[in-house]
Amino acid sequence: MKRSTFLRGAASLAAVALLATGCGSSGSSGSSSGGASLQQVRIGYIADYNGAALLAVAEQQDYWKKAGLDPKFSVFTNGPLQIQAMGTGDLDVGYIGSGAMWLPASGKAEIWAINSVSNADRIIAKAGINSLKDLRGKKVGVPAGTSGDLLLNMALAKEGMSKNDIEVVPMDPSTAVSAFGAGQIEGAALWYPLIDTLKKKVPDLKELVGNKDFMPDQTFPSAFVAQKGLAAKDPKLAAAVVSVIKQANDYRKANQEETIAATATYLKVDTSTLKGQADVATIFDSAELEKLTKNGTVDEWLNGLQEQFVTVGTVKTITDAKEFYASKNYLDAPKG
């Protein structure tokens, strides 16, 4: 598998703050129901369909309480920030896209469950720029360490180019949207739904490259991750969280429209804004993900991403996915 990647300057992400609710305190005690104490778990997410759908379903269907959990949610702009919060002990579980997979591969977190396979990332440019080569010497907004950054590195390598051929402007996703809309940059490495937002301001923008340009040789999974070593430290918590994710996966696969509605309510947005986001992801039920885990397909996805990380120097060597994907925990967790 081939796939060039992304991240440099992860430290700069520290300047990007949480967008909404603060992290709650962790511990084995939490609210109680019917005399039974619920275990608190601090969970991060990204406020779009793929980043929040399973959490929305779990809330609506009351899966958390049934699993004995009291979740405290915090919204982030990207995956690397969530893993940074795990490193400081402020977050237990989070959601990341493919561009942040180098972090669990580097031992900064562990994967508990695959969420979906994405086709949401794009390299975009203003009108008149019709190819990646036309971006030579141009300013390109890049959120470091994200799936957009990953796609940019892959696309440049495919054209025999590197980031030295363009003027990379590191910026968080919302700033990149604003800067592109204001004409301050000529290109950006972003994803849907941010691009939907931009199209309202810049309807003639060009989509130069997307995930599909590298599929099926390369796969772009998103996942739920946790603090490194947490599954071994608290197997009861790990099993309960994954059990909720499995149930929500099964509901989402069987009830797409209802899931979109639940997510819209959860994010306080109109359902019409989420339908396009749902279309750019391949989703699975838990039985499919168990099969893909058992037959080694998930490991292949993760190791394929690492090949790209090695290419650009984000990681030095490929770490067997079995070292950072808690597959046994996923397979053993009950489905409710």
Structure, explained:
The chain has two domains: 14-118 and 219-332, D-Maltodextrin-Binding Protein, domain 2, CATH 3.40.190; 121-214, D-Maltodextrin-Binding Protein, domain 2 (3-Layer(aba) Sandwich). α6 (173-181) runs parallel beside α7 and α10 packs across α11. It is built from 14 helices and 13 strands. The chain has a five-stranded mixed β-sheet with strand order 9-8-10-7-11, with helices on both faces. A four-stranded antiparallel β-sheet has the order 5-12-6-13, sandwiched between helices. A two-stranded antiparallel sheet has the order 1-2. With 336 residues, the protein is of the alpha/beta class. 40% of the residues lie in helices and 20% in strands. The longest helix has 20 residues, at 235-254.
Explain briefly what this protein structure is.
This protein has 336 residues and is of the alpha/beta class. Helix content is 40%, strand content 20%.
List keywords for this structure.
336 residues, alpha/beta, D-Maltodextrin-Binding Protein, domain 2, 2 domains, 5-stranded mixed β-sheet, disordered N terminus
Oligomer: single chain
Radius of gyration: 19 Å
Helix content: 25-40%
- Note the overall shape: globular
Query: What is the tally of beta strands?
Result: 13
The CATH architecture of the largest domain comes to 3-Layer(aba) Sandwich
Instruction: Give the mean pLDDT.
Output: 89
Low-confidence stretches: 1-29
Structural class: alpha/beta
CATH topology of the largest domain: D-Maltodextrin-Binding Protein, domain 2
- Cross-sheet strand order for the largest sheet: 9-8-10-7-11
Can you say what the CATH homologous superfamily of the largest domain is?
Answer: Periplasmic binding protein-like II
Number of domains: 2
Distance between the termini: 35 Å
- Summarize the biggest pleated sheet: 5 strands, mixed
Number of H- or I-type helical stretches: 14
Give the topology string: H per helix, E per strand: EEEHHEHEHEEEHEHEHEEHHHHEHHH
CATH class of the largest domain: Alpha Beta
Strand content: 15-25%
